[in-house]
Amino acid sequence: MGANTGPLDHVVVIGASLAGLRACETLRTDGFAGRITLVGAEDEVPYDRPPLSKKLLAGEWDGDRIRLRKPEAFDELGLELRLGVRATGLDTERRTIALADGGEVPYDGVVIATGAAPRRLPGQPALDGICELRTLADALDLRSRLGEATRVTVIGAGFIGLEVAATARQAGCLVTVLEGAPSPLIRGLGVELGAAVASVHARHDVDLRCGVQVSAIEGVDGRVAGVRLGDGTLIGSDVVVVGIGVSPATDWLADSGLELRDGIVCDDTLWTGVPGVYAAGDCARWHNHVFDPHDDAVMRVEHWTNAAEQGAVAARNLLAVAAGSAPTPYESVPFFWSDQFESRIQFVGRAHGDDEVHVFAGSTDGSFAALYGWQGRLRGVLGVSMPKMVMPFRALLAAQASWDEALEKAAALTS
Ligand SMILES: Cc1cc2nc3c(=O)[nH]c(=O)nc-3n(C[C@H](O)[C@H](O)[C@H](O)COP(=O)(O)OP(=O)(O)OC[C@H]3O[C@@H](n4cnc5c(N)ncnc54)[C@H](O)[C@@H]3O)c2cc1C
Question: Of 75, 254, 313, 396, which residue is most buried, by most CB within 10 angstroms?
Answer without folding.
Answer: 313
